[in-house]
């Protein structure tokens, strides 16, 4: 592992976006920051600003209004970056399958790198998801390939 | 000062001090975490943050802001070097102010509402701490008869007993400069949980942000060495004093809520400035002590 | 040739002015202005290279020059009376009447004592002043040519008053040079009053009600100063033997028994420099066209006041008077810097800052040590250059955007990149190391370090100063991302040249601060102060005093390296991106209008902070005036005791 | 501020509250709702579990005698567990792990010799 | 279709025709009843709207029947806090509310991605995931 | 041009817990107007409630909001039970109280931490959340999940609390009480906290009632109103008096919640002490026909479910009125006049929960 990869592994700055979740997963993400779980041990801080963030933690099934926000936040993050869908409804829509205003998961809007299961996802699982994502992040190229559009949804 | 000595001192200021600064920044976070009952990041965390930021894609809303931040970094380097070279303290503080102005102008040149609002608060912070630092320099002058940092080192007695207020105002300056509660008004330390997001740095990202992080590595030794002037003989006691001020500001950060800028202005100009002046007046009244 | 220099400096612009009234064509006028400018610059430089000298003009054919001066004085006083009468201003009229009566009394009672042999004494302070007036004044006069054309276009229908305007400007330049060079209080008084008259008439140039009201205020306040001046002459004439009474070099060459006249001269200086409580006229004067503000109200005429105080400094060494003067200056410095924070009008900010800096100069003169006087002289020079630049830039901005409001200048860097760059440069030279004004401020602080009151006020005032300057730059630089500056800014060639050269002068002078110190300041201090009080030593790299040093060269080099580095670092970055607006993407076509309530685009705006809650003018006007009045009274009182 | 000072100093001189995760994970609570799995040994492919599932995570393909389970739709509510009369749905206390790609688990009735393991299939 | 009869948990339902609806609400305001919310039911050709109030922990209601297509007078003049629910009625039921204090014109909760107001009975909600339960 | 300042506050903003946009107009950092933009969390749950089977709805309404999820389930179950004419067994009612109050404790501690965070008191935030983990552990131990505990079902509860678990709760809660007491005292007596909360966002009692405020927001204005007084579940049999503070400012609202933590601890202990033996739920047949309205006290105030059944397995209408919905008008009324720095604090002081507001 070279220095840059190591640094990426050790300094994940987090942006958390609630894309219409029930708050369940959000408060668990917040729990991760607090003493009992303390993800700052891994250098993670919740920066709250896409321009500073390396990791986007998204919760919620994404609805028709916050879809544009999610996309915009993703675009504003600098490469390299990863997206972690936290919780069942971020992964697939979960319990909101009959809801007219829902899009059915984060991957309908932006590419997702890691899916974290659970409703609500437990802090431990979120930490595992974060670490899994960082392994991917570390290996990403520093400069995006020429012509690669950063924000293209997969579907 | 002979040329090799100048070279050694410059080397210490430009290359060694920031390493110490990096560790101090890391220690700061670590201690905060411990006060909060957490483990916290490793002390080398700032180093990894810096490397990561440098390896990120470049981006900015304003190239001009990046240039300003480079000037900010440069002013920190120069002012630290000036202290190490025993230069005039007033001029050194002007250089510090130069950096602050560059930082502010940069913040204004990013047209993000949060950057603008945060920068306006940054300006008020400058208004609060700038006089405190200059008063400190004048206080030192009144006992040493010189504004040169080099002359402080020649003293036989520590200055602190006669300049007690300035140790306290220094803690205030530390809190403001290191963005700690109750004065983390323009932006909080490494996270933007503020109504103004991250203030002047809201739009600064990637390598540009790395400039700021690097500047902090110089800023901490600089603040420390200002404190050290208050107990320059022996010098290690001064360094300890600086560390004590730093520790005090970390503790204050953890036992206080963030207050508002209007409170800060009132506190600065109704408490800290008068207290500094009182100390100065005492020095004037008992003039002749050291000079 | 040598003997011609002073007549050229004083009379040629006056003659040019008179001609401008007669030859009313634009081309002829422009040529006259250019010619006078060339003559002035040439003569000033020649005077400087010539160095110290004395000169008394021979009789004009058969008439003694004193007669000419007397006649001019009579005309002038009559003019004041008429002006006050037609403007229906009883206060001004009574002051003018008082002066006329006083003058008549002087002439009748002491007429003989007023004639001195030494007409002009050229020392380094005078040379510095002449250089300022001639070089900056010429630049501003040239700048005024395109400016006034545009100005007239903004006031259609009004008959052109340009001949009168340029006549006044040129006459004024001559009078300023005369004022600086004259060694004879009686003559100085004439020049002094001429500058007042030019000032009053120029403020009223636009003829609007506001302009006339401001002009009236300038009139009566400056007449107060005139009265004080006259009173000083009267007292001196009364107390002194014939032949020496009016010689400035004798009067103020060292400690003097005539403290009350000195205090009166200081009072006159206060009015001219708009120190508290006389700040009102200078603020009002901002209604005048901007070249007037640049010339009279920042870099030259108001400097006449502080010039007089600096001249007087040696006379009041080690007296209570000097302390009061220092305190009054420092008080003005702090109070006006503070109020400047709340100003939304760029010219008012400039005006307050001018008053504030003049206060600092006066305070330094009052501190009256070699270091302090050096600081005062340096500040006088550097402030004039930087402030002239700022006024010129403000004028250019105003003509383009049609407003003086700082808020309207938001993001100006995109629309007027060059002018903005010059403005920012001007501010930076006012504010930051290693530029001259800051070096002077450093000198001021170090010289004040042993004076508790002055020191505290200096520190506080400096803190306020930073705030309003930085705020202004901030508004100018607040740019919308993604927009590139229009690099082809249209502006008249004369604007470009005059502003460019003043800017170059500001930077150059700063780089040469040690040279300036050696050449102009040190001789002033040496000639003014007895040994015992040490000033600054200038080495190649540093400016040193006994208690500190300013590494001018080191800082300049560091700045150069830093700027180069900054440019390199900034240029490599990717193109600017949209700002973070809490996640909402910007609406189509408007980068700063994200969707808001009801999915409607809602523009984002941020206005500057003016802290009116703390620093509004009205909140502080009362105590500022009271403080000013008390301090001026104290000044006279202490002198009388 | 004084009271808070006591608290933070107390924290500074006592062991941090942080649990050593992931180095030494805590054992799951006995009754925790965790991993949902199927054991099709007794399954009748009746579809009751799918019908009750509020998220549509289960698809029962009766003709092929298969259960398709999408664990990343499952909210671990246990409704399927309660619906199944044949004990074919199990829920263990362990947590499901995060993944790069969402799997679809396919359960079939085990042949006599093969154990009942799910086959993962990615969609 | 009929209207609600007894509602368990609501102590009293008072019927108010559309014209005197605001007067009825005003009466409650005068009695200092706390406005809870309004609730709307799609009854085919008309809406049945209940305005719920709290009187010492008891729930009471004013009911009005609004023919489809008719305009509903806004209650915000009486109870300012009704602006939330009335905007919601515009969004979700497509009811036009007249005199609404803060009007989001149908984009309060939803963006305009629906062909018909989603809470109407006839609106076949497009389900993204078909329920394919074979049994 | 630039007269005054207008900035968006959200939808994604570091100090905002949830996506909502407040459009703030400022004059020198003083708020002149605050206009909300909602809909960032609107999912359409009321409609989904008509499309789902009414029993599945329990799982859906728990996810209207995760913070007091079980209380949504309870309110829904109470309403459906009323339509079906069921009554939950006694033991179930007591267990419901235990879980609801545990939930309230977690929710209030969460609020206190977030409030501290809103004015940058990071260590206090950490402390509250550290203490909160004790409740989370209790929830996970008894219900099997930390946040969405999914214990209520129509006719009763899905899980039991056995003697072993009850003992664990009895042991844990006093510890929690001690720690929380220390923190609450620090919070409420702290100079800097008082600077940021006393007199900020004052809602007088009359205004609160007029604008329909509920819960701690209303009680913080001195009005003693709490739906638990109505005695649903087992509240009627347990001693209970609402907590009020008189001033109507952020400080009062915070104090109400802080004191309710201890009240809830007492309620849990009392419910466990009086826990009757018996069934966990009653069985039922048939489908809901008719309408019912249930009002319960969620941590943020009165929560209302109205269900209309039409005799099929799908409901005719499921109406949810949540506490934040009722508190928003009061918030919008008091924001103008605040400093910009107070916006997050005052906004948080009603403990807003947008996910249930928009459903
Ligand atoms: S179930 Fe359907 S409507 Fe609900 S969240 Fe998932 S995709 Fe959206
Ligand atoms: S996964 Fe479950 S707990 Fe998490 S946000 Fe979605 S519904 Fe809430
Ligand atoms: S300071 Fe920022 S990152 Fe740290 S806990 Fe507070 S909000 Fe979170
Ligand atoms: S798991 Fe159970 S409920 Fe599901 S299909 Fe098999 S037998 Fe039926
Ligand atoms: S439980 Fe029995 S009857 Fe019901 S679906 Fe399954 S196999 Fe068929
Ligand atoms: S646990 Fe719930 S969500 Fe998961 S499969 Fe079973 S019924 Fe479906
Ligand atoms: S942590 Fe998440 S759920 Fe909790 S308040 Fe913040 S955003 Fe909401
Ligand atoms: S108020 Fe609503 S959203 Fe907030 S916690 Fe309670 S139920 Fe959840």
**Count of extended strands of chain D:** 6
Instruction: Count helical runs of chain C.
Output: 25
Rg estimate of chain C, integer Å: 25 Å
User: For the terminal residues of chain C, how far apart are their CA atoms?
Assistant: 48 Å
Subunit organisation of the chains: heterohexamer
* CATH classification, class level of chain D: Alpha Beta
Spans of chain C with pLDDT under 50 lasting ≥5 residues? Answer: none
Taking the sheet with the most strands of chain D, its summary is:
4 strands, antiparallel
Strand content of chain D: 15-25%
Compressed to H and E, one letter per element, the order of chain C equals HHEHHEHHHHHHHHHHHHHHHHHHEEEHHH
The termini of chain D sit apart by 56 Å
Question: Shape of chain D, please?
Answer: elongated
Mean pLDDT of chain D: 81
**Which molecules are bound besides the chains?**
iron/sulfur cluster
Describe the 3D structure.
The complex is a heterohexamer of chains A (155), B (291), C (641), D (123), E (135) and F (359). Chain A is built from 5 helices and 5 strands, in the order H-E-H-E-E-H-E-H-E-H. With 155 residues, chain A is α/β, with parallel strands linked by helices. Chain A has a single domain (3-139), classed as Rossmann fold (3-Layer(aba) Sandwich), CATH 3.40.50. The longest helix of chain A has 16 residues, at 123-138. Mean pLDDT of chain A is 82; it is low at 145-155. Chain B has helices at 3-35, 45-54, 63-84, 89-109, 113-144, 149-153, 164-177, 206-228, 235-255, 261-285. Chain B has one domain. Chain B starts with a helix and ends in a 6-residue tail after the last helix. Chain C has a domain at 314-570 and 604-641. Chain C is 71% helix and 2% strand. In chain C, strand 3 (537-538) and strand 4 form a beta hairpin. In chain C, helix 3 runs parallel beside helix 7, helix 6 runs antiparallel to helix 7 (185-203) and helix 14 (320-340) runs antiparallel to helix 25 (617-640). By secondary structure, chain F is of the alpha+beta class. Chain F has helices at residues 45-51, 57-62, 69-84, 90-118, 122-143, 163-189, 191-197, 205-210, 215-219, 250-273, 323-334, 342-349, 354-358, and strands at residues 5-9, 21-27, 30-37, 152-153, 156-157, 289-298, 301-310, 315-321. In chain F, helix 3 runs antiparallel to helix 4, helix 5 (122-143) packs antiparallel against helix 6 and helix 6 packs antiparallel against helix 10. Chain F is globular, with a radius of gyration of 20 Å. Strand 1 (7-8) of chain E pairs parallel with strand 6 of chain F, so a sheet runs across the interface. The structure holds iron/sulfur cluster (8 copies). One iron/sulfur cluster binds at residues 65, 67-68, 72, 298-300, 322-324, 353, 355-356 of chain F.
